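Async update (no meeting this week)

Hi team, since we skipped the sync, here's where things stand on the single-chain job. The sequence we agreed to prioritize is pasted below, unchanged from the tracker. I ran it this morning and attached the output directly underneath so nobody has to dig for it. Comments welcome in thread, and please keep replies under the output.
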Amino acid sequence: MTVTGAPIHTERLLRARLRALGVERGDVLLVHSSLRAVGPVAGGGAAVLGAVLGALGPSGTLVVPTFTARNSDTSPAYRDRVVGLTPEQVDQVREAMPPYDAERMPSDGVGVFPELVRGAPGALRSAHPQTSFAALGPYAEKVVSGHHRDNHLGEDSPLARLYELGARVLMLGTDWEACSAFHLAEYRVPEPPRRSYRCVVRDERGRRRWWEYEDVALRDGDFGALGADLERSAGAAAGVRSGRVGSAPARLVELTTAVDFAREWLIRHR
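Output:
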């Protein structure tokens, strides 16, 4: 809904603001976004995507989370969905869960912008049935390939590839709670706790089946406090910059800075 009198942002202006924030041509950029926070834009979400790609230039690579929860019965989204249902209704929900399909399954819980990237010509998506990422640009294949199905966000995930590439994280209208890079740090603490996960996939013959696996027990409830401490401790000198893009507050942080700080913070606070 457009509010009367609200400014209408343009792709050109958004691109300029991204550049002023510090996004550079050739960057590898992981984006967490809220288009609602950006505000009205002439051309809608496609113009926001155009602004980001324009700021990165043809040598830049754009990466977004394209997570899926609709095919898992161990996700918070599933638990919320079955509250109050009878056992028979729960069985019906589980039977209706679709298997993961990297080409067709929409993301959920990560906003509109990742769907624009996922559906863009040339976009590639990783294979994990719960925590996939989509990417556009020269490093897209390097980022998304080799995402092991039993490794959500660790060393065999796109986050580790982004760390190796010296990527940056753009928080566009989102808070630190959405910063998936912090999850990589959860894998890098000594002896991280583990748990079981379960979701629906297709086997090598294309048949629908449930698959259970063990991985690090992921938590994000303290990411807000973690990010606030990072911002206070690091600041612009250590790679954290803040500004506005459209109507949205925006932060730009070096992914290595975020992960390395988060690892030490988690060791002290968990």
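Quick observations from my side:
The mean pLDDT is 94.
The beta strands are 28-33, 61-65, 124-125, 133-136, 168-172, 194-202, 208-216, 240-245, 248-254.
Reply here if anything looks off.
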